[in-house]
Amino acid sequence: MAKVTVDGIEVEVPNGVSVLQACEAAGKEIPRFCYHERLSVAGNCRMCLVEVEKAPKPIASCAYPVADGMKVFTDSEMVRKGRRGVMEFLLINHPLDCPICDQGGECDLQDQAVAYGLDKSRYLEEKRSVKDKYMGPLIKTIMTRCIQCTRCVRFATEVAGVPELGATNRGEGMEIGTYVEKALTTELSGNLIDICPVGALTSRPYAFVSRPWELRKTDSVDVLDATGTNIRVDARSGEVLRILPRTNDDVNEEWMADRGRFSFDGLKRRRLDRPWVKVDGKLKPASWAEAFGAIAARLKGLPGDRIGAVVGELADAEAILALKELMGALGSRNLECRTDGAALDASRRDFYTFNTGIAGIEEADALLVIGSDVRREAPVINARIRKRVASGGIPVGLVGPQGLDLTYPHRWLGEGGETLRALAAGTHPFNEALRNAKRPMLILGRGALARPDGAAVLAAAWQVAAQNNMLQPDWHGFNLLHLFGGQVAALDLGFVPPQGGAAIAPQIQALWLLGAEVDPAAIPAGAFVVYQGHHGEAAAARADVILPGAAYTEKDATWVNTEGRVQRGRIAVYPPGEAREDWKILRAASEALGKRLPYDSLEAVRARLAQVNPVFAGTGFAPHGCTDQAGPAGDAGAVGDAAFAPALPNYWQADPISRASATMAECADVYLVHPQKQMAAE
Fold it and tell me: Residue 467's pLDDT band (boundaries 50, 70, 90)?
């Protein structure tokens, strides 16, 4: 440890940290543009100048290491003159775009020009102009504003793992852009907007829409993938205008995936905003009383074993609980939450969660990925893996499609069941790398279980973990990666049929779908279908009664991410039209059915959640080990030879909200390789 004095304040900091970090430890604010805590040091903006005793000139504090006994001055006359000079240089070519710039009000350059700059400039020459670059349908570029801090270049290379941004030319002719003009091929591109300290990179969908001080800001959770990214929903006049990430080092650090960030325009398209009842084969608008009356008339006297219920991937815990208890009151145990057909074992929580925790990835020293394209299924988790690989060079093995670009070096071990059986038997060469590691981990993709031998795949993956030092008293290296934010809560609440049962079986005469997009062809002919959800898709078209629900930005709700972390989302805007929160709809329906649920408030529902499963009594994730190595049901030797297929062939349109989004439709058109485009290229 080194003792450093900053403006008379003595602090003790680890050897090797920068002077800037020592100043922050002393509570001093240091201006910066190029420096970012999660990126490598560039030292090229020079805004972070400070004075060090006996140094002949100011030093760039972000790139200068501390030394024991060092004395630093952050507000001397030398420092003030230096910072004013740097700011004057930065503004030589920066245009006066503040009145029309989307970064206005949230711009580091604005703030620091006021705090540290001069009120005049000595440069009267014409400002340079730079051609705007194309970076895809999500990023708007105004490169004349760029100050060459290179944050975007370092983020693309180091965090996203796509070294497609860089600088061309030198001196005043230097420009940032893609070397060959094209869309950035990363699912994390929206983070470039957040880290750009000026208005050079802004959101294309948000361009000229609003000013930040006009927005109502609400903390919530992203549920369009299973990471549980902490977000802030910005809304105005009852409409969501943008979604930004919040910092949570245990989950998403400060990053966010593009689908969750940009698909918000799907929240106002194809919405179900009033009840509908099918009359003479056609859906017609109805009142809530008429909708509940139609449901009660059809379910009256129907045996419980003839009624089924299915919940979708975006359902919240409160609604899942209410539907389960309503089905229980009706005598039905025909419940299902695995709409993708994944053979999940809900008998133990560590069979279906990401047990190391997302932050635990940084402790792993070997990784085996089975049947998962982590880059597209969970881009933020993939960035965490890349960070670990870059810092330690750990061995990574992949069982899945050949040629996947995970953005970090890995060994392709095989594409299907034959390789998995060899790993489970301990005869594969990669077993040695796992056994030699102190904290090896395994990531099993949910898509790998959505096949006829899914139970065998789960059992084989657990066997690999058990035989390769992954299940320790203080380390649990078996991880299941889910795809959406509502999948784990349903398993925690036991929304699965009894052994051998099925929610959609030939004898089912009534089916309740809670945001579940099931294939209409799988529903028994003549079955009475209630669809409760927020977007009208194929399952809603098949329904006899439609009950309009609220999307995740429109309700106070509880979500559980892939690691089992319980988090709360808050209402940012009200549901459209007559739509209501899902648990309230089910509470009202229970009264119409004569099976009144015993809660009338959100607090009462959450108290009941904690009674059903204690994990809902608290929030957060606690690292844990494995004390019981008994595996899930399934024959590990019965894994078939079929190759593992990607679970999300279309990342951009993977859920009802993104499928309704015009922005995501444009992304799919740009990034997906269509047969027609291939033929044209050939």
Answer: very high
Dist CA 282 CA 278 (whole Å): 5
Pair of tokens at residue 465: 């973990």
pLDDT tens digits for 179-202? 888 999 999 999 999 999 999 999
Find out whether 464 and 423 touch, Cβ atoms under 8 Å: yes
The DSSP bridge partners found for residue 511 are 308, 529
Question: pLDDT exceeding 90 applies to what percent of the chain?
Answer: 86
Residue 677 has pLDDT above 60, yes or no: no
Q: How far apart are CA 561 and CA 631, in angstroms?
A: 22
Report which DSSP code applies to 535.
B
- What digits encode the pLDDT tens for the residues 525-566? 889 999 999 998 889 999 999 999 999 999 999 999 999 999
From residue 211, give the alpha-carbon distance in Å to each of 109, 137, 140, 164: 17, 21, 16, 31
Residue type, 36: H
Nearest to 326 by CA among 514, 555, 535: 514
Average pLDDT, the chain: 93
Residue 675 has pLDDT above 60, yes or no: no
* Alpha-carbon torsion, ordered 662, 666, 669, 671, to 10 deg: -130
Please name the residues in contact with 537: beta carbons below 8 A apart, sequence gap of 6 or more: 270, 517, 656, 659
End-to-end Cα spacing for the chain: 62
Q: By the 8 A CB rule, do 51 and 72 touch?
A: yes
pLDDT tops 50 at residue 10:
yes
Radius of gyration in angstroms for the set of CA atoms belonging to the chain, rounded to a whole number = 28
Longest distance between any two alpha carbons in the chain, whole Å: 91
Give exposure, 549-584, as e/b (b: 16+ Cβ within 10 Å).
bbbbbbbbbbbbbbbbbbbebebbbebbeebbbbbb
Query: Which domains can be identified in the chain, with CATH numbers?
Result: 2-90 (3.10.20.740), 271-648 (3.40.50.740)
| pLDDT at residue 682, as a whole number | 36
Give the residue-averaged pLDDT of 351-361. 95
Which stretch of DSSP H or E encloses residue 476?
Answer: strand 475-476
- Residues 136 and 150: their CA atoms lie apart, in Å, by 19
Task: Please count the CA atoms within 13 angstroms of the CA of 268 that sit on its side-chain side.
Answer: 12
Strand partners, 474: none
pLDDT at position 310, please?
95
| DSSP 8-state secondary structure symbol assigned to residue 554 | G
